[in-house]
Design a protein that fits this description.
mainly alpha, Cytochrome Bc1 Complex, Chain D, domain 2, binds heme C, Cytochrome CBB3, iron
Length: 170
């Protein structure tokens, strides 16, 4: 910080960088690429079940993957990295940042949330939920399903192997 302050007079001596006169116009791009309007962005999936987590006829999408036990441990680690900070390690809505002013989410053990299918958690992670933002660009699709699977099977239904429950993940 001190070093930065010492540099300040020097920086102001240069004037503002965005105010530089530049007479030379930009060259037109040598290659004009025609982009068809219906073009799909790289990595974008048009299937609404994948893209949004809803079935075309309505309702939450079904998990298209079968996960092995090793995957579940990874699901636990991913949940711990991306969701637990707000939702709490057990999904009780008591994450570490809640006392710092982040709105408190409903506990996943609340009967209203507990009754929801796995696709609900995928939906929330994909599209965001109220004041919670979307994790679509940060967590790949299969991993979002894996997190949803972990929440539903391990945190809510207690239907996952003891090894997964006991696994230490970082
Ligand atoms: C920065 C904090 C934060 C993180 C990280 C976070 N959430 Fe949320 N989440 C919230 C808040 C706050 C709400 C409630 C939003 C509202 O009601 O406006 C919420 C709501 C939800 C809900 C809906 C609960 C209900 O009331 O029905 C689900 C499901 C959910 N989050 C899943 C996830 C998953 C899965 C992850 C990890 C990929 C995650 N969240 C990460 C803050 C967070």
């Amino acid at each position: 910080m001190i070093r930065f302050l010492l540099l300040l007079p020097l920086l102001s001596a240069c004037g503002w960088m965005w105010d530089q006169p530049k007479a030379k116009a930009f060259r037109p791009a040598p290659l004009q690429v025609e982009v068809p309007e219906e073009r799909v962005r790289f990595g974008e999936n048009l299937n609404p079940e994948v893209r949004l987590g809803v079935k075309p006829e309505g309702g939450f999408a079904e998990n298209p993957y079968t996960f092995a036990e090793a995957d579940w441990v990874r699901g636990k680690a991913l949940y711990g990295s991306f969701c637990a900070i707000c939702h709490g390690v057990r999904g009780e809505g008591d994450g570490r940042v809640i006392p710092l002013g982040v709105p408190k989410p409903r506990s996943f053990h609340d009967p209203g949330v507990r009754a929801m299918p796995e696709g609900y958690f995928y939906f929330a992670a994909t599209n965001g939920f109220g004041r919670m933002l979307s994790y679509k660009s940060r967590i790949p699709e299969r991993e979002r399903w894996l997190i949803a699977h972990y929440i539903k099977r391990c945190l809510l239904d207690a239907a996952c192997p003891k090894e997964v429950m006991d696994a230490e993940v970082h």
